Amino acid sequence: MNYIKSFSISLQRNSLVRLIVKKVIPRKIRISFQRYLNTDISIRLFFKNDIVLITYKDKAIQELVPVFYWDSVPNFGDVIGAYLVSRITGKQVLNVHSLQHAGIMAVGSILQMINRENMVVWGSGLIAEPTDEVIENLRKYKPKILSVRGSKTAKHLSEAGIAIPDQSVYGDPALILPLFYNPSVSSSKKVGVCPHYIHKSHFLKNIPNQDGLKVIDVQKDMESVVDSISSSTVCISTSLHGLIIAQAYGIPWVWLEVSDNNLTGDDFKFKDFFSTLDESQVSHFRIKMEEVDSIDFLAIAANATLPNKLYNEELILESLKKHLHGTDIA
Asked: Is there a single domain that holds both residue 205 and residue 71?
């Protein structure tokens, strides 16, 4: 939280920072927040391709779309939902994760975090097999489901008594990103290795310096990561959204699973996503962390595939548009 406090202090003391914020944030929003800048309660705005931090006290939300997403650690996949909602609505997004407002859960393994009523789910999923407590919260708060990431999440929601749509709208909304973002593609084509941020430091330190190979940093801004994946001949990824973005932009990919340093939920969220593909075509390699410095990534890349899709981008998008059309978000 220190960076939030530092930003707040900068707003009050630094004329250059105030000028930048004045340029970035519309006047109506600045006025409504101005008298609350000295409070300790924080909000986070996703503006275009950047995150703007501000402090906030009033519970009223105006001129913003409330979206619930995880942003405590920089990770490009976590902001894709905010990016898409902002592009689709033409409005700035307010992250309500640390507030008590209802909002849209868009993208991410975050359904187990539901802790309030009137939430709307667009393509999010569970991170693991749900505990009894998670199931109880789902039953208690009864989120409105527009779409889900995949069949595994849908199964658990249905068993919890939550109404879910048919499979035609299943799929991670990151799959529709090409409808809204045209990446800057490098002419220098290499195999992209895309480690999850918990694996990143080990890969950067130990990956061999091979010609035709690059490491993709998922903690850079979203557009830069998408540019890098889209500029790859193949994407080898321990990050789920590394695979999803590769799939979305037609880049053959390999799921690289680090068996002795796996992600929360192990393969749950991967299998959830794979249910929207021809899973028999998924290329999958399991390694141990100690093997990173000796693996022939180019040989692994030779096994990359682009599985046939069972999802429909237009229907995923339409599921949100129908909700927005019938919801006052102004």
From this structure: no
pLDDT digits (tens, 9 = 90+) for 57-82: 444 565 689 999 988 888 999 999 99
Q: Are residues 34 and 158 in the same domain?
A: yes
Are 203 and 101 in a shared domain? Answer: no
Those residues whose C-beta lies under 8 Å from the C-beta of residue 72, and which sit 6 or more positions away, are none
Same domain, 130 and 222: no
Structure tokens at 137: 């919260």
Contact (Cβ atoms closer than 8 angstroms) between residue 118 and residue 142: no
Residue 308 lies in a domain: no
At 276-301, the pLDDT tens digits run 999 999 999 999 999 988 899 999 99
Q: Does 122 share its domain with 251? A: no
Q: Do residue 148 and residue 210 come from a single domain?
A: no
Which positions ≥6 away from 209 have C-beta within 8 Å?
none
Domain count, the chain: 2
Please check whether residues 237 and 282 belong to one and the same domain.
yes
Query: Who has greater pLDDT, 10 or 324?
Result: 324
Q: Provide the domain limits for residue 207.
A: 178-301
Q: What is the pTM of this model?
A: 0.82
